[in-house]
Structures are given as C-alpha cells and as structure tokens.
C-alpha cells in the first residue's frame, strides 16, 4: 500500500559501482569521492546553493509579492473603490486565483522537465508580471477577479517546478536547509513588501492613478525585470549543468550526479512514460503527504490574505497594518533556519512537523480568544512560524521518502496541487462577515493542525514498521535495497 516491495523487485535505478557509501550519509560527515576532497566537495555544493537556491528564492519572492499584494491594496483603497467588502467579493477574488492555480498545477512539473526550468519558469514569471501590471487599470471587481484567474494559471507552474528542480540537486539529508532557504528567504523578503506597498500607496494621485493601483503597476514591473534576469542565471537539472553560463564543468557535474546516485539512485532522468507517471497514484503515502500540505497551506494562505484586515480589526491603522506584517516573518525566518539545521543534522522530519503544528495551535488560541490585542498579535508570530514554517518540513518529509524522477514529479504536482486546494479553503473559511475575530476561520485552522498531528503520527508508525522489516531483509523499500524511510 505504501510502496514497500518484496525482495526480488527490480530497483528503479542502478547504483554506481563506486557507491559503497550508505544512503544515510550527509554533507556534515561525508568525505568520499574518487575525484574531489571533502573541502572541494563543499565548495561545489555551496556554489550550487548560491546559484540554484538563491535564484529560485528570488523568483519565489516575486511570486509571493504578487500573491500577497491583493491584501495590501485592499486596505490601501482597493476595497473602497471596487466595493470588495460587499458580500463575499473579496473571498471570491482570492478563491478564483486558487481555482486556476490548482487546475494548472499538474502541468508544472511535467513542463519544467520537458521545456527546461530556465525557459519555462522564467517565462511564466514574465507572463504573470505583465498581467499584474494590468491589475492596476481595472475598473470593477469582476475585471480584477478575471485577471487573478490568469495570474493563478501562470503562477501554478512555478512552485511545483521549483520544488522538483531543488529535489534533483541534493541528497536527502541536505534538503530541508535548502527548502528552508528557498521558502524562508522568499517569505521573509515578501513580508517586507508590506512596507513597499505602503510607500507605493503614497503615490496616490500621481498620473491620475490611485495608490492601490501603483502597488500593482510597480510590483508587476519588478516581476518582469526579475524574470528577464532569470533567463540568464537560472540553471536546469544536474545533467544540463554545463549548459548554464559560468556554472559547473563536466567533472563537477558528474560529481553531483554520483552524489545523488549514492544516496537514492535516481540522479539520471528516466524516459517519460505517462503510465510510469500515473502509476505513482497507487502509493497511498503520496496522498497522505498531499493532505498534510493541504492542511499547512489552508492555515498559511488564509492568515496571509486576511492578516492585514485582521490587524485593522485589532485597532491598528493602515500604515501599521502594512508594516506589522514584517516582524512575524522575520521571527519565522530565524525559527525555520534553526529548525532546518536541527532537522538535517539529526535527520528528523515528523517531530519537527508536530512541534510546528502545536506552536500554531497555541498561536491560534491567542489570536481567536484572548481579549488583549498585544497578546493576539503575539499569537500571529506563533501561527506564522508554526503554519507557514511547516512548509519546508513537509516538502522535505515527502522528498525524503520517494524515489524516481517521474514519481518525484507526480508527488510535486499532487503536493502543490493540494496546497492550491488549501488556498481555496483558506479563502472560504475566513469570511468578511466574521470580522473582526474571524472565529470560524480560527476553528478551521485549529482542526487542520490537529489533522497534521494525526497524519504525521500515522506515517511515522508505518515508516518505522517498514524500516524494521527492511532491515531484516523481509521487504525492499522503494525498489532500492539500501533505502530506508525517514521519519
């Protein structure tokens, strides 16, 4: 049921003959390679970090900035001018973005592989940047909602493509630090877009445009400029590393491929087969991972989209509400970095996810039920750290426990697709009529974190049971003799 196979199953990929190193080694304690010393290996890996992780994080900043600017514009005059607070208009405008985002998710990883990350990811960033500029010239909430659908369709390809690309470059116990850097840098930097939005809103009246319109126009132009930059510096998969300008030579590329093969034996791309791609759907754990991510994103997206409005309800003014978004994200960035080091160093996944869920539960209790607004704002720190901070651990948990390029692609699509559904749910559970405390949304977020705890406990018990049988030679996990689940 969970893809543990009986002895005699043929492995998905053949480990190189030099791969006598156990699959559990990581960059902290490995000193092996027939070509490079340990110090030289670290230099290569850090060069990959600077080029791959930093470029993907930069594009993710743009993605989040263009996603979150709706809430910034809402309190800067958009709600008033387009009457978004009437009925469920604001929620619908958020919801239609995620409908398109979810529908087009499955294409993300496939097109990233078929067209190449540099051309595909850079092109969709450029496309949604152009549409974002158009958001600044709408005259009705229906026009705005229509453009958000188009942005959702273009943004759908980025996150699954980026997650998939990252997973192909690193061994299993290097991944959470990289996912955290990619996600954390993006989120912390995007949180400061509230300050940028406040400054742009002060352009109110310039060239006859309202301040909220300038938020969309200027941030759309920034997206286009970064997309053009990424055409030059974004890199593809390890086997294509030589094609990237001023990156890895042939020997260094081969080292990266050897390193991944030693860990999980799937560095070399498998030929595309629709049957192989869809066969992964039979593995139940993939859907449990997807449900975990749904729960995480439902809480994360709902808080991000409604937090500026919630802060207004706490008594803060517009300027304070836009600027007070940054401190919780700075705290979350530091928290995630420490957590990632612990997680990779001690090879822990499930306990980290559980701790974050408990932290989010405490924060939600403060936000929803405490009478003091300062305490409620402190709860925001805990909720963002526990909910949005759980994204890298869940991504890593999934990536560590699967093998094969097309299974990895299918998992990225289902995981991030479930995240899109979480965004839809987040738009529905926090409703304008529930302000200022939004208690139905708080209850839904509490339920989501309880589900995270239950699913994580169930997976941990199953993985422990499978590993125990694999060590006794009773089964082969994921088609590879030395492979063990991480929990």
Automatic annotation (TrEMBL):
Source organism, top-level taxon: Eukaryota
Protein name: Phthalate transporter
SUPFAM superfamilies: MFS general substrate transporter
Annotated keywords: Membrane, Transmembrane, Transmembrane helix, Transport
InterPro entries linked: MFS (IPR011701), MFS_dom (IPR020846), MFS_trans_sf (IPR036259)
Major facilitator superfamily (MFS) profile domain sequence ranges: 52-469
GO cellular component, one term: membrane
Membrane topology reported for the UniProt record: Multi-pass membrane protein
Extent of the signal sequence: none
Localization (cell): Membrane
TM region(s), chain numbering: 52-78, 90-112, 119-138, 144-167, 179-200, 212-237, 286-307, 319-338, 350-369, 375-397, 409-430, 442-465
Record-linked Pfam families: MFS_1 (PF07690)
An example molecular function term from Gene Ontology annotations: transmembrane transporter activity
PROSITE patterns: MFS (PS50850)
Organism per entry: Melanomma pulvis-pyrius CBS 109.77
């Amino acid at each position: 049921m969970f893809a543990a196979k009986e002895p005699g199953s043929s492995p998905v990929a053949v480990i190189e003959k030099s791969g006598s190193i156990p699959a559990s080694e990581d960059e902290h304690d490995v000193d092996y390679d027939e070509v490079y010393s340990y110090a030289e290996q670290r230099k290569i890996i850090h060069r990959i970090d600077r080029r791959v992780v930093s470029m993907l994080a930069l594009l993710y900043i743009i993605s989040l900035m263009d996603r979150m600017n709706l809430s910034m514009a809402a309190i800067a005059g958009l709600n008033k001018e387009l009457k978004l607070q009437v009925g469920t208009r604001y929620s619908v405008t958020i919801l239609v973005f995620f409908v398109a985002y979810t529908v087009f998710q499955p294409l993300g990883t496939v097109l990233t592989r078929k067209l190449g990350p540099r051309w595909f990811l850079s092109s969709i960033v450029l496309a949604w940047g152009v549409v974002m500029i158009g958001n600044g010239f709408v005259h009705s909430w229906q026009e705005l909602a229509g453009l958000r659908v188009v942005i959702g369709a273009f943004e759908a390809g980025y996150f699954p493509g980026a997650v998939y690309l990252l997973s192909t470059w690193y061994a299993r116990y290097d991944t959470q630090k990289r996912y955290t850097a990619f996600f954390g840098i993006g989120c912390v930097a995007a949180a400061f877009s509230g300050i940028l939005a406040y400054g742009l809103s002060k352009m109110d009246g310039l060239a006859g445009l309202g301040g909220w319109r300038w938020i969309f126009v200027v941030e759309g132009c920034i997206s286009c400029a970064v997309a053009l930059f990424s055409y030059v510096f974004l890199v593809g998969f390890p086997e294509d590393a030589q094609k990237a300008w001023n990156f890895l030579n042939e020997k260094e590329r081969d080292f990266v491929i050897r390193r991944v093969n030693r860990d999980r034996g799937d560095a070399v791309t498998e030929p595309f087969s629709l049957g192989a791609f869809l066969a992964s759907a039979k593995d139940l754990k993939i859907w449990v991972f997807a449900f975990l991510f749904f729960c995480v994103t439902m809480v994360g997206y709902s808080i991000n989209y409604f937090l500026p409005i919630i802060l207004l309800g706490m008594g803060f003014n517009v300027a304070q509400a836009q600027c007070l978004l940054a401190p919780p994200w700075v705290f979350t960035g530091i928290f995630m970095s420490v957590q990632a080091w612990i997680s990779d160093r001690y090879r822990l996944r499930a306990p980290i996810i559980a701790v974050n869920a408990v932290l989010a539960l405490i924060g939600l209790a403060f936000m929803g039920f405490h009478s003091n607004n300062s305490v409620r704002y402190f709860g925001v720190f805990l909720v963002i750290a526990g909910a949005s901070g759980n994204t890298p651990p869940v991504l890593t948990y999934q990536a560590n426990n699967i093998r094969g390029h097309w299974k990895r692609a299918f998992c990225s699509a289902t995981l991030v697709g479930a995240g899109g559904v979480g965004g839809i749910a987040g738009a529905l559970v926090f409703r304008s009529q529930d302000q200022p405390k939004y208690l139905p949304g708080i209850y839904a977020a509490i339920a989501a974190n309880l589900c995270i705890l239950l699913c994580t406990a169930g997976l941990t018990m199953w993985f422990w049971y499978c590993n125990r049988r694999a060590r006794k030679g009773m089964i082969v996990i994921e088609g590879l003799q030395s492979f063990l689940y991480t929990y």
